[in-house]
């Protein structure tokens, strides 16, 4: 396992850190997505991400980006007069299991067992009421993700049911996804008590063997520091984490609605180039999200609950999970 993981993980994790050694990291964040909030342990069951990054940059260039990412950034229409930039990196693991993890052979119609190990870089270009996002995700699905070992270790630690169906997980496959989106701050109102209310709309698209889709969404927020955190808003929930960590400048609560048309998703369609377990995808999908975040000194704590429509035709349990995020912001 170590021989499989090390060549993939170390270059991806260390390269951005080494290239930005002249800069101080602005934040470090840990995010956990899990279905335990709903007393479930099947389907999309867990996602963990560590993220870090740089905020309020004047430019995107080789001074704050690895050369190959700077080259990619030049191809995206992000740099414009009067804009500021955020750079975010993330590294995480996600997993999907059968509904009943105690069965060695999951029943026909359940989505396949799958583990994902993923590295991401996200670039944000923003002004007062517009924020453009570009993100690249690279990783591996299959035994080399280490998801089987992670779940078995955690379940042994908490004396929970042993997952038995991992022998049928997806085969090793390198995966990628390139995506872009734009958010608009459509309306904002400041109240006399120091709080604000705003409405954000957005649209985006992504392509890759990990997932390809187009989508749009809208959110309403109430709280403090909404203008400061607007560039970081993500309207469509993502599994296995998102490196755009919250920075709220106080506190906020929010609600979001989003819809997408999904062309392909490896967690549902199975391996791209090999025969594997799969189910029939539902292309039209929608999500509702409620959540909040609060800043306590240099710490930011966030909690989100996501409820989605079915992702595939034979789905037997609802698409729902909770997400917890803790961020430390450096001076």
Automatic annotation (TrEMBL):
<feature type="signal peptide">
    <location>
        <begin position="1"/>
        <end position="22"/>
    </location>
</feature>
<keyword id="KW-0732">Signal</keyword>
<dbReference type="InterPro" id="IPR037107">
    <property type="entry name" value="Put_OMP_sf"/>
</dbReference>
<dbReference type="InterPro" id="IPR018707">
    <property type="entry name" value="LpxR"/>
</dbReference>
<protein>
    <recommendedName>
        <fullName>Lipid A deacylase LpxR family protein</fullName>
    </recommendedName>
</protein>
<dbReference type="Pfam" id="PF09982">
    <property type="entry name" value="LpxR"/>
</dbReference>
